[in-house]
Structures are given as C-alpha cells and as structure tokens.
Amino acid sequence: MSIQAAYDNWSTTYDADENLTRDLDRIVTKETFMGLRCKSVVEIGCGTGKNTLLLSQIAQKVYAVDFSASMIEKAKEKVNSANVTFITADITNQWFCNNESADSIVCNLVLEHIEDLSFIFSEAYRVLVKGGYFFICELHPFRQYGGTQANFQRNQEVIQIPAFIHHLSDFFQAAKNHGFLLEDFNEWWHEQDQNKPPRLVSFLFKK
Ligand SMILES: C[S@@+](CC[C@H](N)C(=O)[O-])C[C@H]1O[C@@H](n2cnc3c(N)ncnc32)[C@H](O)[C@@H]1O
C-alpha cells in the first residue's frame, strides 16, 4: 500500500487508536510552542490536525499541508479557524509557498516517510524568512533500528506504512548543508517508556 493510500485508510481511526507516539508528540509540541507567537506558520504533514489547533492559537496565519485528502478532511472537522488554510499537496514536490514567506515551519512524525531529507531542508530554507525556525519532531531512529515504523491495524492485520531510516547525523548534515543552525535538540520518552530508548527526537533549526 502506498504511503498516501495508507494514511487515507488510517484517517478514520488515527485519532482514536491507541498511539503513545502521537500522544507524546502532542505534549512535545505543546511544550515547545506554548507561549510563543508567530506571524506565519507552514505545517507540513498536518494529518488530522492534532497540532494544527495549537498552531492556530499562536500564529496569525497557518498553512497546513498534507497529501492525504482524508487526513485533511478529519483535520477540517476539528480545526475551524479563519486563520488556517488547508492545502492538499505532496511535500516532495516544490512547495506552494513564496520565498521567505513563513517565520516557522513545523513538521511532526512525517519525515520517516520521506526518502530525500535534503529536498525538504532546501524547501524549508527557501520558504523561511531570515531568522525563521524549522521545528522537527520525529520517531527516534533508535526505535527504527529496533524495527518500529508507523503502522495501524485493519481487520486483524497490521499495516506497516513504508518508512525510511534517517540517522541523527542525517538530520544534522542535511540542516548544515542547507545553511541552518541548530538551536535546540531533545530526546523524549513517554511516561510508559521507562528503561527503553527514546521514543521521539526533536530539532529546532534556525535560518
Ligand atoms: C503520522 S502522520 C502525522 C500527522 C500529524 N503531523 C501528527 O503529528 O499527528 C504523517 C502524515 O504525513 C503525511 N505525509 C506523509 N508523506 C507526505 C508527503 N510526501 N506529502 C505530504 N504529506 C505527507 C501523511 O499523509 C500523514 O498525514
């Protein structure tokens, strides 16, 4: 099953399924952005809008992008804010945004599905204003090394969504190659993760 078809399918239960990674990511995003204010945010891979609602409260304008029309439909059910525009697009193609038009780009649990990190960093750099931030929160590669990847259950079958392993150094190299500076880096555990490798990794890069 393609990544897009898998998310179209998962959209019906994504919010209700038990998913500690999704839940931890929500906490991380809240901790990171609470109290901040931005003019224009581009959220790539917004999914069902779990983080879009929070972003709509801290930004004057949010562009929330995803290539799964069904995930976006779910997001629209929960986010009904005049300052949010949903866009159905594939982020592996040139982004719709003008050069230097956003002051933040936010990306949660998406890059495991993207083979070429370099393209994403080059588009993020193009679209951000000078001094703008690129926030990334992803499944930690240590978990990927153990065989974990995005998956969901349908009719007693586990559907594994195609995923690529990006080592920590891949993120740092891609960022450096495109001129970003590292502002912050964190590893995160869910409260049920005692004695396990970190579940999530987050990066805050600055243009
Ligand atoms: C695990 S979900 C995360 C959704 C949301 N960011 C969250 O944290 O709940 C991954 C999302 O990335 C989207 N996605 C994956 N590859 C994409 C691509 N090439 N272009 C646009 N969206 C993509 C999927 O459709 C899906 O909605």
List keywords for this structure.
Rossmann fold; seven-stranded mixed β-sheet; two-stranded antiparallel sheet; 7 helices; 31% helix; binds S-adenosylmethionine; Methyltransf_11; transferase
Short description:
With 207 residues, the protein is α/β, with parallel strands linked by helices.
How would you characterize this protein structure?
The protein has 207 residues and is an alpha/beta fold. It has one domain: Rossmann fold (3-Layer(aba) Sandwich). The chain is built from 7 helices and 9 strands. The chain has helices at 3-10, 20-33, 52-58, 69-78, 117-127, 141-145, 168-177, and strands at 38-44, 59-66, 84-88, 102-108, 128-139, 151-154, 157-160, 181-188, 200-206. Strands 3-2-1-4-5-9-8 form a 7-stranded mixed sheet, sandwiched between helices. Strand 2, helix 4 (69-78) and strand 3 (84-88) form a beta-alpha-beta unit. The protein is globular and about 50 Å long. 41% of the residues are buried. The mean pLDDT is 97. Bound molecules: S-adenosylmethionine. Keywords: Methyltransferase, Transferase. InterPro entries: Methyltransf_11, SAM-dependent_MTases_sf. One of its GO terms (molecular function) is methyltransferase activity.
